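Protocol step 6 of 9: fold each sequence in the batch and record its structure tokens directly after the sequence line. For illustration, a two-sequence batch is reproduced in full.

Sequence one:
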Amino acid sequence: MTRADAMAAVRNPLAFIAARWTPTPRTVRRAALAALVMSVVIVVTGGAVRLTGSGLGCPTWPKCTDDSLTATSEMGVHGVIEFGNRMLTYVLCAAVGWAIIAARSEKPYRRSLTRLGWAQFWIVMSNAVLGGIVVLVGLNPYTVAAHFLLSSALIAVATVMWQRTREGDSAPRPLVGRAVQQLVWFLVAASVLLIAVGTVVTGAGPHAGDSSEVERMPLDWENVTKLHAVLAWIVVTLTFALWFVLKAVDAPKSPLNRTRDLFLILLSQGVIGYVQYFTDLPELLVGLHMFGSAVTWIAVLRVLLALRERPDDEIGAPGPATAEATVGTRA
């Protein structure tokens, strides 16, 4: 490497890498998928921190204690769990960084993909700071809820980027009519409300995240839980109605199959939710419910993204949605 190369790498490392490496489309897709998977993993491990009472395992931030950057042996297993979750943030950053580098290096260059990667990066950084605030304010339930909602935003952006790696950059073309699109947007809005109320259920419930006295939301937990259940049934009903409408209008297979997948995920999530409610919220089931919440949100977004196609005009070949639509037409 010459001195000029070194200077170029320092000035703009992404451009330097892009000039010397062209990833395959599969590599870009895998990088985007890795970022999505890690965004779900960090939600699950964050839930594990809370459910094991390790939320204040590291009592301060950004250090673990006032005198130590890492957990010490005196802090026990709670310190290990909390500090381990903090370290996973770096793994998440690495996955998002790989997605950004792969998107920036793809030929031809797609600015939309790179922007989605950077959006994930800034959400991760914002949530890391918010996570520190959560610790500093002693697991205040409102900050904990905001922490989870920002993680849901990260999952949304990561899901969109993963989908966009499998599409072209031409203008989107709808695969269904406006009435169906509006029904799906109602479904998305109901799902957002369901997730938001779910954070209130957690904030008012018994799992405070630490063994000490931690502030809870001053709400009747039973009533909030019932509201959460009602919203869940609304989402299930909208999903079933959407599947019925898609069948009636002979829609392409992609939105139909993703709606079916969402319906099955919702049923599984509902079973877990009711079982955990009637068994006094065992930690394992609550953790599975949190994982199911992330998977449900991804499934809802995939239904929304399946309503249009973006063929790759550069290659002239149909994208995944187009191919599935062709199969549906022949059937």
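Sequence two, same batch, same settings:
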Amino acid sequence: MAIAKAERLMNLALCLLGTRRPLSKRELRESVEAYLEAGSDDSFNRMFERDKDDLRELGLVIETVESLDGEIGYLARRDSNRLPPITLDAEEAAALGLAAKVWQQARLAGAASGALQKLRAAGLPEDVDPYEAHGALEPRIPVHEAAFEPLMLACRDRRPVVFDYRKANAAQPESRHVEPWALECWRGHWYLAGFDRDRGAERVFRLSRITRKVRSRGARFTAPVPDVVTVRETVASWAGETADRSALIRLRTGAGYPLRAKATGVRELGDGWDELEIPYGHGLDAWLVEFGPDVVVLEPAELRADVVDRLRAVAKG
């Protein structure tokens, strides 16, 4: 949502909440600065009707009242728009505190902290500390990619985006036109699921491979958004998690712990190398490339060829 529109909606909401009597369109137009800039009555009427519908969609209860002389007025009574008291038990407060801790390294840290402060002001028991440690392990979701925040907002607002994306086996990035659905963190990496307009199909993008700035587009979504966006399942299938075969690789001693965790068999070769048998499925070549010189594919030959091709593409880039 553009800042100008958000400010206009805020001012309209304050007018409707602050009045003790219904306000006519004329009075609202004189009270909200943005409405004074409307070029004509028709332009103002269209803008006001859209804003009124948007506020109602956001949950504001706006009443329409007709006076004795037939004039229509609007107001939002405070008692109709007051949230019920918030009551949280110790377990619920602990869950909120845990969620806030998860985002401490992300751009949402300020919002998470502010939300908990508002809950405290709204009646969160003083003897419950949502930030209190509840275990030896403290979760973190690191967010270092500049693309995270604009994509998060685009997912929320249902706005198409354009960004340059470099595939693992590509020397140069390509422009992608995407309708973003959801973001999810999987194995320490952030992924975006959405509808790729150029390819006319669902795609998953790793945020660390997005280059340059994410640009928003004003057009609407053209494809329906699934009720459940299975980002993790889609990424897992492309990363070989649904493997039905095995691959044999050499792995440098002391390296590649994610690969070791997946291995179904490990044999020491000596000279600083181990031999691992790991599940082999679609996308395993892209994952192996990330370990660079610490991994050598022994078999099957097709996997070895795919990894070599990807490494050559990266070297050319």
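Proceed to step 7 once all outputs are recorded. Observation for sequence two: The two ends are 37 Å apart (CA to CA).
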